[in-house]
Amino acid sequence: MDKRTPNTTRLTDAERVDRLRLIRSDNVGPRTFRSLIHHFGSARVALQRLPDLARRGGADRPGRICSEEDARAELAASQRIGVHLLSPDEAGYPPRLATLDDAPPLLGVRGALDALMRPMLAIVGSRNASGAGLKFAGTLARDLSDAGFVIVSGLARGIDQAAHRASLANGTVAVLAGGHDRIYPPEHEDLLAQILDTGGAAISEMPLGHVPRARDFPRRNRLISGAALGVVVVEAALRSGSLITARIAAEQGREVFAVPGSPLDPRAAGTNDLIKQGATLTTEASDVISAIEPIMGRPLQLREPGDEPIDVEPEAGDRARIVGLLGPTPVLLDDLVRMAGASPAVVRAVLLELELAGRLERHGGGLVSMI
């Protein structure tokens, strides 16, 4: 991976429209977007290739491609409410988030851009938090904020809102599961307004008008952890969205911290289990700072897809063999290459075709499966 300094370029208006069209088209997620841009050189060329690639993947009909008119309308509507749609290379895009292979190709950013460029720590936890949990989250957020870190969280009820409120004075970042005009929960619209008025910011990868659904929250959680140096879980039940955030953080190479709690309180069961699994036991801000300081000076590295071109049409035998190896159970890409006996470029080409045809699902850790 090549070392680089992120946030150094600026897209032209035409490039921004093309990129928005591509990411808003059917079956194009962040990883697929990045692969298309890397191999075809531009969003405009990738848009031209989408129908043919989907056909190769077995699609009955081409997926919807976002029109230039719709893209320009979204850009204009975003600008009217102060939202900037930024690429990972542009100033204002959180640098650590830009290092992820599934970083949003265009991130909707509102508020103080400088807050997004400072070192961040995430604090998350139970929506149905205890009084003690709320108090500790507030104390920890305030102490870490005073130490120079920007607190990032999900604007949810409970621990999230406590962390945001305690760190307002130094700037805090809210990560939204829906569009910038569809705040969830609605009662936190006032809190978001305070965040924006006091030098903080809000980010979302969703289009305006998007009302968050259950499946959108794990997507949001990867942004919370991805933007941060580490994630502190204050309270979490054994089946909790906060544990999803902790798992994603570990996959992203972020530090994971957990606050211990009573074994009699189910809201502490998840955090206690995280400690058993190796998360750093946290009872005060210094526990976090001492673990984070050694990694703060490390240069950021952006992950790059493989160098082999995908602008090839796999032979029918290769395609059939690769499709035959896939099923509903996720399989590692490296294992798929080995079992198929094909080059990585051919395997990636088939996977891209399947994804654009709406037949493939990508999971964390390089796993793929058929839908």
CATH topology of the domain at 110-296: Rossmann fold
Order of helix and strand elements from N to C terminus: HHHHEEHEHEHEHEHEHEHEHHEHHEE
What ranges have pLDDT less than 50 throughout 5 or more consecutive residues? 1-5, 305-309
Query: Which architecture of the domain at 110-296 would the CATH scheme give at its second level?
Result: 3-Layer(aba) Sandwich
SS element count, helices: 15
In order across it, which strands form the biggest sheet?
Answer: 1-2-6-5-4-3-7-8-9
Query: According to CATH, what is the class of the domain at 110-296?
Result: Alpha Beta
Largest sheet: 9 strands, mixed
β-sheet strand percentage: 5-15%
Taken from the alpha-carbon principal axes, the silhouette is globular
Structural class estimated from helices and strands? alpha/beta
Helix proportion: 40-55%
Query: Could you report the average pLDDT, rounded to the nearest whole number?
Result: 91
Number of strands: 12
Distance between the termini: 31 Å
What Rg is obtained from the alpha carbons, in whole angstroms? 21 Å
